[in-house]
Amino acid sequence: MDKADYTEEQITKFKTRFARRRLARILVAIPVVAFIFFSGTSMGRGKFFDGVYEVAGPVGVAALLAILLILIYKWRCPACNGYLGRAFSPKYCPKCGVELS
Q: Is residue 2 part of a domain?
């Protein structure tokens, strides 16, 4: 469908869905960034952290990869289901051109 084929009500729904997806992306990014920050700042600080890294390191990396895959899978246009690319908050879908924000 071309972007001109959508009603105003549909476009409003697309914008709402996109806003939810963008919020979820932000909420997921916060713990990921915190994990990366704390991993880097607490390395080599004693035996306690060495034990934590034996478990948290591989688990954290696996969790980060899973989160990234989910984000890539979910970062789609609500109108055409096309991938939105690397842009954090695109104004328009690069595939169908529908307005997102």
A: no
The pTM (predicted TM-score) of the whole model is: 0.68
How many domains does one find in the chain? 1
Residue 63 domain boundaries: 7-101
Query: DSSP letters of 11-48?
Result: HHHHHHHHHHHHHHHHHHHHHHHHHHHHHHHSTTS-HH
**Are the C-beta atoms of 76 and 84 separated by less than 8 Å?**
yes
**Mean pLDDT, the chain, as a whole number?**
79
Measuring CA to CA, how many Å separate 28 from each of 1, 35, 59, 78, 99? 31, 11, 16, 19, 24
pLDDT tens by residue, 83-100: 898 888 889 999 988 999
In a domain, 48, yes or no: yes
